[in-house]
Write a structure and sequence with these properties.
Blueprint lengths: L1 H56 L1 E5 L2 E5 L4 E5 L3 E5 L7 E8 L9 H11 L2 E11 L5 H6 L2 E11 L3 E12 L2 E9 L4 H13 L4
Length: 206
């Protein structure tokens, strides 16, 4: 009889211990989620304010016959007649913006979609079908206003069968020449510089 009581108490204690452990795991899980949500909210407000500052204090950069307003903290790390690269040298962000004159001659049956496919093959880029956004010229207000043919592709992709990326590509045709402006980063860092790249595109002028 005594042994049964002892066993019952042990079972009760084990059940109680498991219950406490489950509660603690739930508390920890919710705490982590709360911290993440607070951080993301802070980042959203911070980036919103920084985009206003970037637009107000940006520096002008002429490329492909168009005028770009780029953030002051983008540092030009490479330049040639056909290619310019900007990076964040004040941080260790895995990110860069590339401005490229692309040697692709369109024939009468081709369009900017063909240019994109050629570029993707050349760079060994495979986009995630469920996470890619393609914007045609009428969706890009700044380009429709200035009468320049353009295409924008944004999403996650894999490069060289191994590197996971967040990439935003703007392709435009001006004076019968093809130009590509690209923001490329790790998937996480794409959330940091992506808003500034998008704002730059939205404010292009001739």
């Amino acid at each position: 009889m005594i042994s049964r009581i002892i066993l019952a108490n042990i079972d009760h204690l084990q059940s109680h211990t498991i219950s406490i452990k489950s509660v603690m795991e739930n508390i920890f899980g919710w705490s982590v989620l709360t911290i993440i949500l607070v951080y993301l909210t802070y980042m959203a407000f911070s980036i919103k304010n920084e985009t206003k500052v970037a637009l107000a204090t940006g520096k002008e950069f002429r490329f492909g016959g168009l005028l770009f307003n780029i953030p002051l903290w983008w540092t030009e790390t490479f330049s040639s007649d056909e290619k310019y690269i900007f990076e964040r040298t004040d941080t260790r962000y895995d990110w860069r913006a590339t401005f490229l004159k692309y040697n692709f001659k369109l024939n009468e049956t081709q369009n900017l979609q063909d240019v994109f496919e050629s570029y993707a093959i050349e760079k060994k880029l495979v986009f995630d079908e469920e996470n890619v956004i393609i914007k045609v010229p009428e969706n890009i207000i700044s380009f429709s206003d200035i009468g320049v043919e353009a295409l924008r592709i944004e999403g996650t992709a894999t490069q060289d069968d191994e590197h996971r990326l967040y990439i935003d590509i703007l392709i435009f045709k001006n004076a019968d020449e093809i130009f590509i402006v690209e923001s490329k980063s790790s998937i996480l860092n794409g959330l940091l510089e992506g808003p500034f790249f998008e704002q730059m595109i939205a404010n292009i002028t001739k």
